[in-house]
Amino acid sequence: MEMLEIERELAGPASAEALAKYDRQLVELNTRLKGALAEGLPPDEYAKCEGFDEVITLARKLLRIQVRGKVL
Q1: What pLDDT does 43 receive?
Q2: What angle do CA 9, 13, 14 make, to 5 degrees?
Q3: Is the Cβ–Cβ distance between 70 and 11 less than 8 Å?
Q4: Among residues 1, 17, 13, 32, which one has the least CA distance to residue 63?
Q5: How far is CA 35 from the centre of its chain?
Q6: Is 72 exposed, middle or buried (0-12, 13-18, 19+ CB in 10 A)?
Q7: pLDDT, tens digit, 9 for 90 and up, residues 32-47
Q8: CA distance 52 to 30
Q9: How far is residue 38's CA from residue 45's CA, in Å, rounded to a whole number?
Q10: In the prediction, which pLDDT does 72 show?
Q11: pLDDT at 70 exceeding the cut of 80
Q12: Rounded Cα gap, residues 20 and 11, in angstroms
């Protein structure tokens, strides 16, 4: 349900604000992730987290595609 709500926000009249909000959350998440990786994690935790950087980048790109798709 939450994904549908996000999709509605991104397609609505305040799509730019919604994009900024979700993009900011993803940037903050990426900052926290990089901080945790830099501080050092146990090997099993590091293995779980090291691919999240790419996932966050992909999520940010998908947000932009969603908003652009509304405009096109």
Answers
A1: 87
A2: 60
A3: yes
A4: 17
A5: 17
A6: exposed
A7: 999 988 999 888 888 8
A8: 8
A9: 13
A10: 40
A11: no
A12: 13
Q: Which amino acid is at 3?
A: M
Distance spanning both ends of the chain, measured CA to CA:
25
Spatial contact of 49 and 33, defined as CB atoms under 8 Å apart: yes
Whole-prediction pTM: 0.81
Give the H/E segment covering residue 72. none
**pLDDT at residue 21 tops 90:** yes
How far, in Å, are 36, 42, 44 from residue 39 at the CA level?
Answer: 5, 10, 15
Residue matched to tokens 């509304």: 70
Task: Write out the two tokens for 44.
Answer: 């099993």
Lookup result for tokens 């900024």: 20
Q: Give dist(CA 19, CA 65) in Å, integer.
A: 10
